[in-house]
Design a protein that fits this description.
alpha/beta, TIM Barrel, two-stranded parallel sheet, 41% helix, binds 5-hydroxymethyl-3,4-dihydroxypiperidine
Amino acid sequence: MTQFPKDFVWGAATASYQIEGAWNEDGKGESIWDRFSHTPGKVQDGDTGDVACDHYHRWRDDVKLMKELGLKAYRFSVAWPRILPEGREKVNQPGVDFYNRLVDALLEERIEPWVTLYHWDLPQDLQDEGGWASRMVVDAFVEYADVVSRALGDRVKNWITLNEPWVSAFVGYQHGHHAPGHTNLVEAMAASHHLLLSHGQSVPVIRANSLMSRVGITLNLTPQEPASPSVADRKAATWVDGYINRFFLDPLVGRGYPQDIVNGFGKAMDFIQPGDMDTIAVPVDFLGINYYTRNIARADNITEEENEPRTVIRGDEITEMDWEVYPKGLYNILGRLHFEYNFPAIYISENGAAFPDKVRPDGQVDDPARLSYIKRHLEMVSKAIDAEVPVKGYFVWSLFDNFEWAFGYSKRFGIVYVDYQTQQRIPKSSAKWYSQMIRENAGL
Ligand code: IFM
């Protein structure tokens, strides 16, 4: 593989609800994911994040493990209800202290902390007032961003406001598969807007509290390919691209919401107020992208017989999420981002795969499929860098096996295996490979 630039950021990512556990300890408030996972039937096998990887108690050892792996950066999220249990006003100091200790320990090991402010665990009290569908959440988020960036901003220099607002808004408020489990398109549209507005309003606040810092946002981007050259399939691909990708990318760069999608939704966006779109378009220092797979779009408004034969066929390498392994899609989306949107820097803030790993009798976990997945995606990153796309870092998803939302613990994404009975951590062969890759490229 081509050498990566010496200053390339080599990291791994996690999220608070997926690993911390301690859901009601030290003054933490209830989050929408606590409520959702405690509701029977919402999460596979009745799993919850109550204990998860118990990272809240094991963070010291976890940081040591990161050091052993040679990670240069660690992306984690802060649990909003640990900081402000009721969503606003009353700060819970033990929650702040937890992240203070974590940041200090990381820096001691020369691991750069990358903080995501919102990775889906909204305080339940704010949901009771309407959650992301209600405009009041914007002020609450800015207050939260202010508290966290004041507390950690002297040491944390890389901030991600939101993780995957499309998922928060549409999977949470339209599809109902994620917390809060609503199925209302207008709520989802309003939620998208309030998420983006929260991002836009909080960026200057974070910058003011954390001098010399860099602030960005992370989107889940899924490139769309028409299944055939038919007009119907092209239309389908354009629609899904607008729905998942452009609906967030376009407003971030000042182009407003894509008109084809607004028309397609067919609902008034009367929650947009004067000035909002300028606020959302605040220049960012980088865009984080989470890439897992592509989508092959096939029209569903005509029959198979009416449509042209498929020319783009799904490959047969599929992860346990039923996602096609398609590294080329990462290269394609990076190129498109650069030429159509021109963000000053791009980080791969998540990339990885779930496979059904097993501990071997000798205690090791061999995961050649994941290793190959990561390796081939990194090759695409390297190719994009050669093509002058400003990709500045890569965070594997995930450091640990963890709570995979509605799938509970049934899907393992980690490069480190977690035995949920004993909480033992076992670096998989992918972790050893990644570690070696970092050592070779970061000049350690
Ligand atoms: O586990 C999630 C993560 O929380 C957000 N991005 C996608 C991952 C895999 O589904």
